[in-house]
Amino acid sequence: MNRQIICALDTPHLDEAISIVNRLKSHVGAFKIGHALTLPYGLDIIDRLKDAGASRIFLDLKFHDIPNSVALAVAEAAKRGVWMMTLHISGGPAMMTAAVEEARSAGDELRPLLVGVSVLTSLDQRVLTDHLGVSRSIEEHMVHLSKLAMEFDLDGVVCSAQEVKPIREAIGPRGVIVTPGIRLPNTDSHDQKRFGEASVAIEHGADYLVIGRALTGSPDVVKTLEQFKLSLV
Ligand code: C5P
């Protein structure tokens, strides 16, 4: 078991998700679900996956709304015993504060970890600057937003392997860093623009790695996971 590895279940098919959970439950620390499974199955999907043996669920719905709406969403997710969830830091201080208060009110046993998303790993500098009008570098922008997330008491942040080092330096040892966009060397990067290797992310200070298609799209998920684990050594 490598508790640092989180497997992303990006499929709308319950049977496929359960089959992956069955094969990987004793090898990874958590399973991440997003819109693909929660839209067809609702939050009941959490219990279904737990019944199949998933011990920790990471709900990656990247909340981004007015504070009241995000607080309501966090409360619903917390009731279901979600271990970790995401929200966009650009939702602003009031939204983050509302989410944190709601998570804390769930009590110590049910309190989910709240991690902030800044610049998606599918975006590059050109899109950030030319389309989204952010003139700072991706790294500067992510460091700025990550520090804001910690200032408003989120538990951690999401970033690609390429920004772990400066973000860890900026936020210090306290915050959790979750890194998606993980690939084995010289393999398909799919729609990810900022991706990297597991060992680099961990060496630079990431706590958790999210691995999706590179794992779930392989014919033998356990064997492929072993390759990721070896690349961590
Ligand atoms: O298949 P792949 O490993 O690229 O999947 C990465 C997962 O991490 C997806 O489920 C995606 O939604 C999520 N994610 C991401 N970039 C972020 C935050 C979450 O890729 N910034």
How would you concisely characterize the structure shown here?
The chain is α/β, with parallel strands linked by helices and 233 residues long. It has helices spanning 14-24, 35-41, 44-51, 67-79, 93-105, 125-131, 138-151, 164-171, 198-204, 213-216, 221-232, and strands spanning 2-8, 28-33, 57-63, 84-88, 113-117, 156-158, 176-179, 208-211. The longest helix is centred in the middle third of the chain and has 14 residues, at 138-151.
Q: Report the biggest beta sheet as strand number plus sense, adding barrel if it closes.
A: 8 strands, parallel, barrel
Low-confidence regions: none
Bound ligands, named by name, code or SMILES: cytidine-5'-monophosphate
Order of helices and strands: EHEHHEHEHEHHEHEHEHH
How many helical elements? 11
Q: Averaging pLDDT over every residue, what do you get?
A: 96
User: CA-to-CA gap between the ends?
Assistant: 14 Å
- The radius of gyration computed from the alpha-carbon positions, rounded to a whole number of angstroms, is 17 Å
**Secondary structural class:** alpha/beta
Share of β-strand residues: 15-25%
CATH topology name, in short, is TIM Barrel
Question: Keywords, please?
Answer:
binds cytidine-5'-monophosphate, eight-stranded parallel beta barrel, 233 residues, 18% strand, TIM Barrel, 11 helices, alpha/beta
Protein described:
There is one protein chain. This protein is an alpha/beta fold and 233 residues long. It has one domain (2-227): Alpha-Beta Barrel (TIM Barrel). 45% of the residues lie in helices and 18% in strands. The protein has 11 helices and 8 strands. The chain has helices at residues 14-24, 35-41, 44-51, 67-79, 93-105, 125-131, 138-151, 164-171, 198-204, 213-216, 221-232; strands spanning 2-8, 28-33, 57-63, 84-88, 113-117, 156-158, 176-179, 208-211. It has an 8-stranded parallel barrel with strand order 1-2-3-4-5-6-7-8, surrounded by 6 helices. Helix 4 packs parallel to helix 5 and helix 9 crosses helix 11 (221-232). The mean pLDDT is 96. The structure holds cytidine-5'-monophosphate. Cytidine-5'-monophosphate is lined by residues 8, 10, 34, 60, 117, 120-121, 158, 180-181, 190, 192, 210-214.
